[in-house]
Amino acid sequence: MGSVVEWIDSSWYSAYAKNWDDAMFRERIIAHIKPDSVVLDLGAGAGIVAQMNFKGLAQKVCGVDLDPRVVDNPMLHEGRVSDARGIPYEDEVFDVVFSDNVFEHLDDPLSVYKEVSRVLKPGGVLLFKTPNKWHYMPTIARLTPHGFHQFVNRLRGRAEADTFPTRYRTNTKGDVSRLAAEAGFTVERIERIEGRPEYLRMTWPTYLAGALYERLVNSTSLLAPFRILLVGTLRKMV
């Protein structure tokens, strides 16, 4: 089975490497970071995603997370334990706030949008990457218990401690546009992206099914609402 998976990798997805989505998101973030930027990683956690390391590219990188491991995150100059609804920083501190695979976990997304707006400087940028609600993966996640999510991620090599309950309350283009407007943001860009089907690479039959789905939803913009990634770039109004 492994050889068939490897063949699909090399034949159909040769341009994709491990964590391709994080590498793509990194490029989006770097486009907005300058040497004097002060940056906040919202949901920084323990620092397990190497692509989210911006030390050396910005003046200061801060992070907040409910996970106490954030204080020892090696990718941060400063990590603080906090809920995203009460970011422990003064008003208008940051030039850039980014969030990688966090927005799907928010219970009260409007409060988070407003908090991010508060700590951003006028004209500052919020970037996030999160699953698109209507893709099959979040749809299955909404219909299954958290223990099943931990089991699937364990098969994919992700620790149970890094698998958190999902809510999907700001995970469509419409949801993002509405919440952004309420919190004082303008929407610069919302991308919906489908790439290599990571969640189905466990066996060749599932991988093949995922590849066929990928080709289908990328065949027309009409099917964009069913692609896996929702990547947003929002700017705080001046």
TrEMBL record:
Residue ranges of domain Methyltransferase type in the record: 40-128
Protein name stated in the entry: Class I SAM-dependent methyltransferase
Molecular function per GO: methyltransferase activity
Keywords noted in UniProt: Methyltransferase, Transferase
Record GO biological process: methylation
InterPro entries: Methyltransf_11, Methyltransf_Superfamily, SAM-dependent_MTases_sf
Signal peptide (from-to): none
